[in-house]
Each structure stands twice: as structure tokens, then as C-alpha cells.
Amino acid sequence: MAEYDPTAGLVVDRNLALELVRVTEAAALAASRWIGRGDKNAADGAAVDAMRKAFDTVAISGTVVIGEGEMDEAPMLYIGEQIGLGGPLCDIAVDPLEGTSITAKGGTNAIATVALAERGGFLHAPDIYMDKIAVGPGLPEGIVDLDAPVAENLRELARAKKCAINDLMVCTLDRDRHKEMIQACRDAGARITLLGDGDVSGVIAVSQPEAGIDIYIGSGGAPEGVLAAAALRCIGGQLQGRLLFENEEQTVRAREMGITDPQRKYRVDEMAAGNVMFAATGVTNGAMLRGVRRTASGAVTHSIVMRSKSGTVRYVEGHHNFALKPAAFVA
Ligand code: VTB
Ligand code: MG
Ligand code: MG
User: Cβ of 1: how many Cβ atoms within 10 Å?
Assistant: First the structure.
């Protein structure tokens, strides 16, 4: 008989985090076959398919709450889908290929990503835009705010970081809708990094000192906001998010998903509460992760995995041997 292990409950937890890496590795490997081939839907489909299969080997009773869409529009990893082998009840947020266009063009920063929370831990964000503002750890709560003018946010941040505004690096998606905000940052004297796609890693960058990003500002996918919040729960940092409703249909849909106050500004712990885990694998090279590299016999993957409970962040380099395990079965 096995000896009594007072940390047994934790062991399940810990192992689950590493299991998630297998899931993101599988999606990244599948997507990597489509890098630069100009077909973002094929890349996305390959990632979704591989991730879905990989979940079949994970010992959870998971419900997809942030997924590929509604049941009638997404065949796999749709919202409400039950996944996993059976095990602890949990909610799952996925973006099997965050950066489909980047992948199709062979650009930078595409990742495969997953987050896990205890049942009820994630905001059930509809697939609409979310306004986001994020800064790294160690700053006073509320130092920046979605409702404050850009110049004021930058001034406060520079003051707290004891630097000049022109030392600050802002990160945002390169979109026409951000024109005014970008101009306001430039007028205030800050520097800016414009991303083609991929605001999950853009937001996470604020909490990675080596990324050199001081603040993320701008609107992107709400599901991506929840995934980024899951990561920040583990590594610290502030993210404020507010859903952006463009029409009545979206408001109604959100109400059905339990969102009663459309104006609400969500903090990290309101988007990703309780015990949370986050994993991502690079598809193409980025500031956070290296992309999938093909070798003569297989591929090398680079992943990050973290847990809110311990705050431990691990980088995992996976060397996959396709002679023993073809890419389709890497999970
Ligand atoms: C962002 C970005 C994603 O969607 O969330 C973005 O991180 C927002 O939508 O990679 P727009 O492209 O319409 O600006 C993606 O680009 C695609 O999911
Ligand atoms: Mg996606
Ligand atoms: Mg996405």
C-alpha cells in the first residue's frame, strides 16, 4: 500500500500543470506545419484538432468556457464542451492558435495556449472585443485605469517606476481603431511596440521584465483577455478589462452568459479566480517563447507553464522524436 502523503492533493494539481504543456505542444506542433503557407484557417483547424485530441489524455472533467465558439459553429472545443479523461472538475480556456494570421504569414508571436481554473473561476467572456490596460507587478493597485486619459496613465506609471515618460514602452495591436490612443502615447513622449496580432503574449509581456514592455493598452479579443488574466494571476501584474459591446445582439448574448453589468471593469482576479494554471507553447518565434523548430528526426518546442498557487513559472523545452511518436500523437 502506498504511504500516506499529506501533499497528495497538491500532487494532482502540479501534475495537471505539466499535462497542460502536452496539450499546447500538440497544438503548436500541428500548427507549425502551416507556418507561412498563407492559410490561416488550415493552421487554426490543425491546432484545434490536435489540442482537442490531446485533452482526451488529460485526467480532468473539464468544461470549455473560453473556446472556439458556440456548439453550432465550432465542431471542437466549443463553449460548453466536456473534455478530458475524467478527474477533478475544472473550467478550461483555450486558444489553440493565438495568432492565426501571424502563422499564415510566418510572422512573430504566434502561440498555442490553454488555461485551467477550478469550476467557475473564469469570466465567461463572449467573443467580442475587450478594452485592456495592463502593467507589471509591484505597482500600486489602480495605478492605471481604463477611464483615465492616456497621458495621465503614462504620467502616473512613470512616476511610480521613477523614470521618464520617454523611457516607457507601450505595447498595443497595430489597428486603425487604436490610432488616437497611439497618437496620444506619442504626444506624451512614450515609445510604442505595435503587434500584428497576439495580445495574449502582448499583455503577459508587461509582467516579464526581459520583454521590456511597461504597459499594454488597447482593445482585443475578450477571450484573449481572460487567457492573459490567467497568466497574470500566476506571475503578478494588473490587467483591467472592460467588454466592448458593438450592438444589442452582443449585449443580449453576454447577459445570457451571466454578464449583468456591461460597463464593469474587471480585474485579473475577477477574470481568473481561485486556483489557476496557464500554459503556452510558441508556434512562431516571439519575445516570450521560441517557435517550433524542425529537426531531422522531429521537432523542438518551447513552452511556459505556471500556477497561481505556487507562482512557479517553468519553461519547458520539448524534444520530440517523430520516429517514435509522430507529430499527430505527441500528446
Ligand atoms: C487580438 C489578437 C488575436 O484578435 O485579440 C485580436 O490577440 C483582436 O481582434 O491574435 P482584431 O484582429 O479584429 O483586432 C486576434 O488577432 C485573432 O484572434
Ligand atoms: Mg483561436
Ligand atoms: Mg486568438
Answer: 3
Average pLDDT over residues 50-60: 95
Which residue type, as a one-letter code, is found at position 226? V
- pLDDT greater than 90 at residue 79: yes
- How far is CA 186 from each of CA 12, 151, 168, 189, 197, rounded to the nearest angstrom? 48, 9, 11, 5, 21
Distance (Å) from CA 3 to ligand 2 centroid: 44
Predicted confidence at residue 329, as pLDDT, reads: 67
What DSSP letter does each residue of 11-53 carry, written as one string? HHHHHHHHHHHHHHHHHHHHHHTTTTSS-HHHHHHHHHHHHHH
CA end-to-end distance (rounded Å), the chain: 30
Kindly provide the ipTM of the predicted complex, given to two decimals.
0.95
DSSP SS3 for 199: helix
> How many beta carbons lie within 10 A of that of residue 162, not counting itself?
7
The pLDDT of residue 2: 41
- Give the pLDDT of residue 3: 46
Say if ligand 1 is within 6 A of residue 131 CB: no
pLDDT of residue 287: 86
pLDDT over 70 (residue 212)? yes
**Ligand 1 in reach of 286 Cβ (< 6 A):** no
Q: What is the mean pLDDT of residues 60-82?
A: 92
CA 281 from centre of chain: 11
Q: Which residue has the cell 479566480?
A: 273
Q: How far is the CA of 159 from the centre of ligand 2 (A)?
A: 37
Verify whether ligand 1 is closer than 6 Å to residue 220 (CB atom). Answer: yes
- Determine the Cα–Cα distance for residues 102 and 38; give it in Å rounded to an integer: 9
The residue to which cell 481572460 is assigned: 226
Kindly tell me the burial class for residue 119, based on how many C-beta atoms sit within 10 Å of its own C-beta (0-12, 13-18, 19 or more). Answer: middle
Q: Is the pLDDT of residue 104 over 70?
A: yes
pLDDT for the residue 114: 98
Rounded Cα distance between 157 and 131, Å, is: 18
Q: What is the pLDDT of residues 230-247, one digit of tens each?
A: 999 999 999 999 999 999
Asked if residues 259 and 280 have their Cβ atoms less than 8 Å apart, the reply is no
